[in-house]
């Protein structure tokens, strides 16, 4: 079994609103007791064998689909990532994104940052 982990961070409210112009310091600089994993979630996908996954670090996650696998006994998961953030109200162009297809999939779990099974990093 192989486990693939995708960590996602929710976009902060100050980045969503367009009132702030320019670069902002990380929230860790403002609050000493901040948990760096706060507002993160982990998509944990377990497969039966190794599947090559392209590098998607730093890209914007735009689409998740889960279907029945071709063998009709397992699941098939497709993730799509975009190079640029998606503009408000516009649909992402799925043909321009990086697709990650995992098939066959044994299990899929989504863990919030406060879940007891969320991986903890002592460096954080």
TrEMBL record:
<keyword id="KW-0812">Transmembrane</keyword>
<dbReference type="GO" id="GO:0031647">
    <property type="term" value="P:regulation of protein stability"/>
</dbReference>
<keyword id="KW-0472">Membrane</keyword>
<dbReference type="GO" id="GO:0019005">
    <property type="term" value="C:SCF ubiquitin ligase complex"/>
</dbReference>
<feature type="transmembrane region" description="Helical">
    <location>
        <begin position="48"/>
        <end position="68"/>
    </location>
</feature>
<dbReference type="InterPro" id="IPR026509">
    <property type="entry name" value="TMEM183"/>
</dbReference>
<keyword id="KW-1133">Transmembrane helix</keyword>
<protein>
    <submittedName>
        <fullName>Transmembrane protein 183A</fullName>
    </submittedName>
</protein>
């Amino acid at each position: 079994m192989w486990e693939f982990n995708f960590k996602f961070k929710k976009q902060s409210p100050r980045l969503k609103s367009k009132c702030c112009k320019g670069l902002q310091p990380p929230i860790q600089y403002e609050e000493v007791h901040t948990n760096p994993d706060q507002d993160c979630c982990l998509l944990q996908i377990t497969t039966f064998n190794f599947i090559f996954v392209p590098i998607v670090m730093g890209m914007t996650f735009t689409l998740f689909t889960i279907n029945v696998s071709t063998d009709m006994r397992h699941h098939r998961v497709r993730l799509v990532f975009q190079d640029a953030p998606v503009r408000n109200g516009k649909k992402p162009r799925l043909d321009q994104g990086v697709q990650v297809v995992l098939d066959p999939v044994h299990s899929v779990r989504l863990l919030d940052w406060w879940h007891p099974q969320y991986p903890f990093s002592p460096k954080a």
